[in-house]
From TrEMBL, chain A:
GO terms for cellular component: Ctf18 RFC-like complex. Belongs to the CTF8 family. This is Chromosome transmission fidelity protein 8. The keyword DNA-binding applies. The keyword Ion transport does not apply. One of its GO terms (biological process) is DNA replication.
TrEMBL record, chain B:
InterPro entries: Dcc1. It comes from Scheffersomyces stipitis (strain ATCC 58785 / CBS 6054 / NBRC 10063 / NRRL Y-11545). Belongs to the DCC1 family. One of its GO terms (cellular component) is chromatin. The keyword Phosphoprotein does not apply. Coiled coil: none annotated. Keywords: DNA replication. GO terms for biological process: DNA replication; maintenance of DNA trinucleotide repeats; maintenance of mitotic sister chromatid cohesion; telomere tethering at nuclear periphery. This is Sister chromatid cohesion protein DCC1. The keyword Membrane does not apply. Pfam families: Dcc1.
Length: 158, 365
């Protein structure tokens, strides 16, 4: 019967302690390990591939500018800008492109969420010649709040 | 006003996937308090009719794991300002989570249906299955959706033992025989079963002297019918549990047809070892009998009752149209969903009526 070990060593220190001090906006939206959780009602339609070999010209320059390379290998697309409210630290606004904005809030989760990092495609069979030690599932962070956008998008008038 | 550019990775990570697991407060406490203990995700055997059950276990606790899907977009974002100490205010989404794993308290379970039954030197196979599973206790633990400590508690409760590396379930008759012999041996050594404690090693030595039961069988009996004492490696007898065990045994053998409660109490008393005078009360046996006729009882084999609540109500009302409330509740208690009151289930499938002062009965609707 398959069973899997979940390694907790990475999160023991933060399991039962809230962040001791909230000094910066980063502390408001992220965990001490730097993770944030965002929830948007409905679906976010994003491109499925980056325009890697596309020639840049006047018509697509702005579109291509939305794409970046993370850690020099992974492609990511910019889909918006998050803005924290200066007066009310629990309010956030997410601007999607140039025409829509979403009003949201930062809420405490009823139950904290452990972020499980699960290795994929582990082949440990001896006949494969590379009998490596199987990598365990890890809980790499504990998220206690999320940014939630429950309302319909509002138009931005320009 | 602080602003962040929000990105989402186009293609998912090829080496890892990320999932969200709800962490109840007791699990959080476990994570922070235990320096070395990790979690274990286990599953029960899946069959064509039963897809199997996933559980999450610590060393001493079990939670049932359920996937909760949702239709919202939930993104996990990496704030590069924090760990990478950048100052470019970028949030990079690296995983999209279309569900969360929910954990709910569970007692865990051990499937013993295919294990061989042991009756002394005679091997009685379970359910007449000649292909009983040959498996060690360690393998059974690995295959059972339950934590290690809960497993061993439940294993001994079920009468499990390991002989020559194979797991067996002791037959109820054999458990009664070994228990009877051990109590008799203890009393013959002037052991006061009401107050004294005894070293586990002494029980093993007495067993060798009397009948030479296998050590693992004696261990099962000790674990099942004794309570740990404050003194190291010493135990005292759990007299109520022992009395109940003998009571159920007599019920199952003698009360297959109506038996007067007086006659039953006499037979129950005579089934106990000599000089073992513990208090006997019919209340101990609630959940194992019904009284369709005043002061006459009949044994009910719980293994033959349905495991769905509505069907069990029907079966119980077929046995008796009017149940004493206190006699009825033990039959349904284990099927009532967590967080639901027993009475609300009684009102759903039957009626609760007050007859006289402080006396209630349960009847069909």
């Amino acid at each position: 019967m398959p069973s899997a070990i979940v390694d907790l060593s990475g999160v023991r220190s933060i399991a039962n302690s809230e962040r001791s001090s909230v000094n910066t906006p980063d502390d408001v939206i992220s965990t001490p390990f730097g993770l944030s959780l965002i929830e948007i009602q409905g679906e976010l339609n994003l491109p499925h591939e980056a325009p890697i070999n596309v020639q840049k010209n006047d018509t697509n320059a702005e579109y291509i500018r939305n794409f970046v390379t993370v850690d020099e290998i992974k492609h990511a697309v910019n889909f918006g800008q998050l803005q924290l409210d200066e007066k009310d630290p629990s309010k956030v606004t997410l601007f999607i492109g140039k025409s829509q904005r979403l009003l949201g809030s930062i809420v405490e989760l009823d139950l904290p969420l452990g972020v499980m990092k699960i290795p994929l495609n582990q082949d440990t069979s001896p006949e494969n010649g590379n009998e490596k030690q199987k990598e365990d599932i890890q809980i790499v962070d504990i998220v206690r709040k999320k940014m939630i956008f429950k309302q319909r998008p509002l138009p931005i008038m320009q | 006003m602080k602003k962040y550019s929000v990105y989402q990775q186009i293609s998912p990570d090829e080496k890892y996937t990320y999932k969200l697991l709800q962490l109840p407060s007791d699990l959080l406490r476990h994570i922070s308090d235990n320096e070395t203990d990790n979690l274990l995700i286990k599953s029960s055997t899946s069959t064509t009719s039963n897809p199997g059950q996933l559980v999450v276990c610590t060393d001493d606790k079990t939670w049932k794991l359920r996937q909760m899907n949702h239709s919202n977009t939930v993104l996990l974002l990496d704030n590069q300002n924090i760990v990478q100490h950048r100052n470019d205010n970028n949030l990079i989404g690296f995983a999209s989570c279309s569900y969360e794993y929910e954990l709910t308290d569970s007692k865990g379970s051990i499937d013993i249906t295919k294990l061989p039954r042991l009756h002394g030197d005679e091997l009685r196979d379970s359910t007449n299955n000649v292909h009983a599973v040959q498996i060690s206790v360690d393998e059974l633990l690995e295959n059972s959706p339950i934590s290690r400590q809960e497993f061993f508690h439940e294993w001994y409760e079920l009468g499990g033992c390991e002989i020559d590396g194979r797991a067996y379930i002791l037959s109820p008759e054999y458990i009664t025989e070994v228990l009877y012999t051990l109590i008799t041996a203890l009393i013959s050594e002037s052991f006061n079963y009401r107050t004294d404690t005894v070293a586990v090693d002494t029980i093993h030595q007495l067993s060798k002297k009397q009948s030479n039961f296998a050590d693992s069988i004696v261990t099962t009996i000790v674990q099942k019918f004794t309570v740990r004492s404050d003194k190291p490696n010493e135990v005292s007898l759990d007299n109520d549990k022992i009395a109940k065990w003998f009571g159920i045994h007599v019920l199952s053998e003698r009360a297959t047809s109506l038996l007067s409660s007086k006659e039953f109490l006499i037979q129950w008393k005579s089934s106990l070892p000599a000089f073992y005078n513990v208090s006997l009360d019919l209340h101990y046996l609630r959940g194992y009998y019904c009284m369709p006729v005043e002061d006459n009882l009949i044994y009910i084999n719980r293994d033959h009752l349905s495991t769905t609540l509505s069907a069990r109500f029907v079966e119980l009302f077929q046995l008796d149209r009017e149940w004493n409330y206190d006699d009825f509740v033990p039959f349904i208690k284990d099927l009532v969903p967590p967080g639901v009151k027993v009475d609300s289930m009684i009102l759903k499938f039957g009626k609760k009526k007050k007859i006289g002062k402080d006396r209630f009965v349960v009847t069909p609707r």
